[in-house]
Amino acid sequence: MKNEKQCGVLVVGHGSRRSEANEDVREAAVRISERGGFLLVEPAFLEIEHPDIAEGFARLVQRGARDITVHPYFLSPGRHTRGDIPVEVSDAASCHPGITYRITEPLSAHSLVIEASVERILESMDHNMPAEARFTHVSKQRYCAERGKVYLVGAGPGDPGLLTVKAADLLATCDTLVYDYLVNPEILAHVQSYTERIYVGKVGGGRHIPQRQINDLLIKQARLGKRVVRLKGGDPFLFGRGAEEAEALFQAYVPFEVVPGISSALAVPAYAGIPLTHRGMSSSVAVITGARRGDGVYESGALAKLASADTVVVLMGVAHLREIANDLIRAGRASETPVAVIRWGTYNGQQTVTGTLGSIAVEAEEAGLRAPAVIVVGDVVRLRERLNWFEQNLGVVDEEELEAAFAVAC
After folding, report:
1. Where does a domain end: 217, 246, 262?
2. Domain check: are 155 and 249 in the same one?
3. 202 is catalytic
4. What is the pLDDT of residues 132-149, one digit of tens each?
5. Does 271 lie in the same domain as 251?
6. How far is 407 from 199, CA to CA, in rounded Å?
7. pLDDT digits 0-9 by tens, 272-329
């Protein structure tokens, strides 16, 4: 690692009369150097063993370091990293004018260390126990939520198997979960029993929590030091108001991270056997919301600029299906253009109705289709006859049971 101020790393262990314990610290320094790509790394010891902190600090300076990071290696946060080390490092730095330094937080209370400790405990409890019984999903996490941070997480379109690994890990390690109506209740099984669950779902035409109130809630929870997951159906940045929440967090100086999810615009047509693109049939796709204004009212003429796309996907538009079809026809699409409306896409209760721009409104009304649904317009809908892999394997699912499951979760 080279820059104008050559950086060095001082790995500080406790120091022991047992040589093997001291060798562990030296080996850790070598591995930190290799893994982190740091050129200047030296071990040092707080007690008994040499080099001590002053000697290790001096070695880094002699090797060219001008900015030194001191890393307490598994030392207690109280006595050592809050007391002894700052004093000794300050004394060492005073002998080298112009050298800057910082001290990292110790590893001892890091969430990954705690999880590794749990794993070791489970390993020792019963060596005869099958591995799958010893290790829960908590001990296998790759990603852990951080305190004081908000994660804007996409839950995917519904099928729990489409949840990303990162999303599942963050759900398992969060303190506060803020979630929407379209989040499959089965996904909440990843959340720990101690996690506070706050439902803020919006249902078209029904009561809902104002967006400003949701923004304030996320900011408040993060400032309390909570690990916050904001779980949204589909992808948070595709008609999910995730960007609005991210802007609010940015303005409040609250750290955040976006974890993309599989959008219903992509997954639901695929589960209905409809590819959005196909060689010789469709090479362009437009995705639009059917509720353009803040009050959910359809904006007439909104599709005019997008009607020329080979495939048009409309989210949150089933309540305005007739207006959407008429707008596309007025914009130049033939009334015979194939259309599919897919309700509860990727769930076992998935229901698909097909027709044309001229007939789909009537056919969907006769089938009793309501939200949530995805509308797909274009010649690719014809491929459903051959590619309908998902619904062919479905059993009969009671729609009232499906909606009841959501009602319970909410």
Report:
1. 262
2. yes
3. yes
4. 443 444 445 678 899 999
5. no
6. 11
7. 999 999 999 999 999 998 876 555 567 777 788 888 999 999 999 999 999 999 999 9
The CATH number linked to 70 is 3.40.50.1400
Name the nearest CA neighbour of 76 among 106, 102, 48.
106
Is a pLDDT exceeding 50 seen at residue 245?
A: yes
Q: How far apart are CA 341 and CA 377, in angstroms?
A: 9
Q: Is the dihedral of CA 144, 146, 147, 152 positive or negative?
A: negative
- The two structure tokens encoding residue 146: 């951080």
Instruction: Judge whether residue 4 has pLDDT over 50.
Output: no
Q: Indicate whether 252 and 279 sit together in one domain.
A: no
Residue 302 lies in a domain: yes
Residue 120 has what pLDDT?
64
Q: How many domains does the chain have?
A: 3
pLDDT of residue 205: 47
**Boundaries of domain holding 85:** 7-103
Phi-psi bin for 273: left (phi > 0), alpha (psi -120 to 50), beta?
Answer: left
- The reply to whether 164 and 251 lie within a common domain is yes
Pick the range with the lowest mean pLDDT from 25-34, 291-300, 334-343, 386-395: 291-300
Report pTM: 0.63
154 and 255 within one domain: yes
Closest CA to 208 of 180, 184, 177, 185: 180
Q: Which of 84, 175, 202, 281 is catalytic?
A: 202
Burial letters for 318-337: b for 16+ Cβ neighbours within 10 Å, e otherwise?
bbbbebbbbbbbeeebeeeb
Q: Which of 52, 159, 169, 180 is catalytic?
A: 180
Statement to judge: residues 225 and 193 lie in one domain:
yes
* 318, 387: one domain: yes
Q: Which of 159, 235, 316, 327 is catalytic?
A: 316
